Amino acid sequence: MTTLKLFGLGMLLLICQALANEIFHVRIRPNPLLLFALAMGLRSVGVGPLFLSFMFGFALDVLSGSPPGLYALLCGTACAVTRLFDQALYLRAVGPWMVYVLVYALVDGFLPPLVLSTLRPEVVPDWYVVMLQVPGSAFVTALCAGPVLLMLRRIGLDSEPEANWASVGPRSRL
User: Fold this and answer.
1) How many angstroms separate the Cα of 17 from the Cα of each of 144, 159, 170?
2) Quick check: 6 and 155 in contact, CB under 8 A?
3) pTM for the complete prediction?
4) Are 47 and 54 within 8 A, CB to CB?
5) What φ, ψ does residue 20 adopt, rounded to 5°?
6) pLDDT digits (tens, 9 = 90+) for 39-58
7) Is 112 exposed, middle or buried (0-12, 13-18, 19+ CB in 10 A)?
8) What is the distance between the alpha carbons of residues 30 and 34, in angstroms, rounded to a whole number?
9) Which residues contact 122 (CB under 8 A, 6 or more apart)?
10) CA distance 140 to 147
11) Are 148 and 31 in contact (CB under 8 A)?
């Protein structure tokens, strides 16, 4: 039942992402699907959250016409990195979560142009435009991070027993 709720939340945020792309100016456009992928890293159950993150990232690739798999890879990576950082830092409080989302959204904003310029050297992004767009979008995404975390808590962030796929060997958490 929790997986069905998470799928519904992912669909809602995918629709919000499509609407945000149409409504908001590119400098202040939130990234709800990145928030979903990051929040799935806080889930402590198997590979299901990673699969959901990857699946919704691929759906956005299909809808946006971007290179197939690029955003899916970024969403899957966001989920995995959040899982790793949540073990080192406690990201389940709203303050640290919003700071983490801000930093990750800044890094994530520069990754697609960097990857595209590396894979296709003839396509050089206008870095001045990227530098103007990324900070505002990252800040607005971080502002939206608190409500998404609260929605996930309501759904039940840790409702199932832990199956740790991010580390090797047993590890206790204080």
Assistant:
1) 12, 27, 37
2) yes
3) 0.80
4) no
5) -65, -35
6) 888 876 678 888 888 999 88
7) middle
8) 9
9) none
10) 12
11) no
